[in-house]
Amino acid sequence: MISSLGCHERYSVEVMAKSTASWRELYPFESHWMGAPKGRIHYVDEGPQDAAPLLFVHGNPTWSFHWRGMIGPLRRTYRCVAIDHLGCGLSDKPQESLRLVNHISHLVDLIEHLDLRGATLIAQDWGGAIGLGAMLRVPDRFSRIVLFNTGAFPPWYIPWRIGVCRWPGVGRAAVQGLNLFTRAALRMTLSRRRSLADQEASGYLDTTRDWDSRRQTYEFVADIPMRKSHPTWQTLAEIELGLRRFAGLPTMLVWGMQDWCFRPDCLAKFEAVWPQAEVHRLEDVGHWVVEDAPDDALRLTEEFLARSA
C-alpha cells in the first residue's frame, strides 16, 4: 500500500513508510486520488463496484481512517467510499483558507467522478454539513442517511473548548503549532473508553505531524461562524432550510449523549425536521461514536441498512 502513495505532496515514500507502520495495519485499504484545482484528494473505494454505495464523510480533526472499523466489515456487501477532505489525511495540504462550501464542492465532484447512485450518506461532525450540503446539490444520487453526532445549521452556541482555539494568535499557535486540537480529541471525544490505543492514535497524529499538515485542522475551527456576517453562516443556513427535502428518506441518527460539542439539543433539531428518523441514544458515549462504541456503531448501521434496503 505504501508504494501506491507515489509523490504525494508533503509525504515522500520514505517518510510514509517509517511513520505509518503502526496505523497501516488498521487501514488495509487501497489509496485512490482525484484531482482538484487546489490539490489531489485522497479517497478509498472498497467492495463490489456494482453494490449499493455507502459514502463516508468525516469531520475535524479526522480523515477516512476514522471509518476503518465500519469499512472493513461493510465492504463485503456494500461499495464503501470514504473521502479525505482536502488538507486532511492523505490528501494534499494546500496552505490557504478553505471553507465549508469548498469541501461540499469537492465531495460533489467525487460523487460525480465515481458516478455514485442510490448512495447512503454516513457522516459525523463537519461531515454532516458537508455531506448534506452535497446531497442538496445532487439529491437524486442519494437514498438513505446515517448520521453520528453532527450539525447542519448555524451554531447557537460555541463550546468553550472550541472557542479558545479561535483566540487571535493563541488559537493558531495551539492548533496548528502544537497540534493540541488533535491531541485533545484523542481523549475529549470519548466517554465509554478512556483513550485510544497508541496504534489507533497514531492514525490521527501521523497525518498531522507538522505545521503545514495541520493548516486545515485550524481552518476548520476558524470556519465555525459566530455571526451572520461570516460567509459559512449563510452556507449552513441554506443547508438547514433544505433538510426538509429529505424527510421522506430512510434516516438513522446515532448519538453519543455525552458529547459536549454536538450536544443532545443538536439531535433534537434533526428530530424536529425528520420525525420519521430512527434514533438511537448511546447514553455513555461521547463525540467520536465510531471510536468510543465501535461495535454498537457497526451493528446499528448494519441492521438499519438491511431493514431499509
Please sum up the structure shown.
By secondary structure, this protein is an alpha/beta fold. The chain has a single domain (2-307), classed as Alpha/Beta hydrolase fold, catalytic domain (Rossmann fold, 3-Layer(aba) Sandwich). Helices cover 38% and strands 15% of the residues.
What does this structure look like?
Helix content is 38%, strand content 15%. By secondary structure, the protein is α/β, with parallel strands linked by helices. Helix 2 crosses helix 13, helix 3 crosses helix 4 (126-137) and helix 6 (170-177) crosses helix 9 (215-222). It is globular, with a radius of gyration of 18 Å.
- Beta content comes to 5-15%
Rounded average pLDDT: 92
Q: Please tell me what the overall shape is.
A: globular
- Low-confidence parts lasting 5 or more residues at pLDDT below 50? 1-20
Total beta-strand segments? 8
Give me the CATH superfamily: Alpha/Beta hydrolase fold, catalytic domain
Secondary-structure-based class equals alpha/beta
Order of strands across the main sheet: 1-2-4-3-5-6-7-8
In whole angstroms, how far apart are the ends? 33 Å
Order of helices and strands: HEEEHEHEHEHHHHHHEHEHH
Name the CATH class. Alpha Beta
Biggest β-sheet strands, sense, barrel:
8 strands, mixed
Percent range of helical residues: 25-40%
- CATH fold description: Rossmann fold
> What CATH architecture label applies?
3-Layer(aba) Sandwich
CA radius of gyration is: 18 Å
Count up the helices.
13
Q: How many structurally independent domains? A: 1
